[in-house]
Amino acid sequence: MKTYGTLILSGTWHLAAVPHVAMRVKRVFESIAKDQHGVIQIPDTPGNARDLLWFLDRYPMEISNGDLAQLRHRAAFHAEQVLAVERIVARAQRVGVAVVDQQDLKINY
User: Fold this and answer.
1) Where are the domains positioned within the chain?
2) Tens digit of each residue's pLDDT (9 = 90 or more) over 75-92
3) Torsion of Cα atoms, 11 then 40 then 25 then 29, to 10°
4) SS3 state of residue 3
5) Which residues contact 95 (CB under 8 A, 6 or more apart)?
6) pLDDT tens-place string over residues 8-44
7) In sequence order, what are the residues at sequence separation of 6 or more whose Cβ sits closer than 8 angstroms to the Cβ of residue 52?
8) One-character DSSP codes across 13-70
């Protein structure tokens, strides 16, 4: 299988990719500075893990088995968080409680 770069977890995710994929990463992860060159650093958050897993589906990269397991674990945690929030909102709507704006929901990683 063709790969487009490497992804390594070392406190943050370190992504080194061919130029067109690096440009795409910067569009997907808006918090990345557009002038960042070479190895791109992406914070290790559950949301970023889920997006990185999705991104790897389109642009396969070399990644160790341990890092891939961590990425999958963090992505699954994010999916669980989203479902929990959706259940809370749905329950509130059923009982007629005012639903807060998503920006008011603070989830600490």
Assistant:
1) 5-98
2) 898 778 877 778 877 777
3) 50
4) coil
5) none
6) 999 999 999 999 999 999 999 988 888 888 999 999 9
7) 7, 13, 42, 71, 75
8) EEEEE-HHHHHHHHHHSTTS-TT--SSEEE---HHHHHHHHHHHHHS--B--HHHHHH
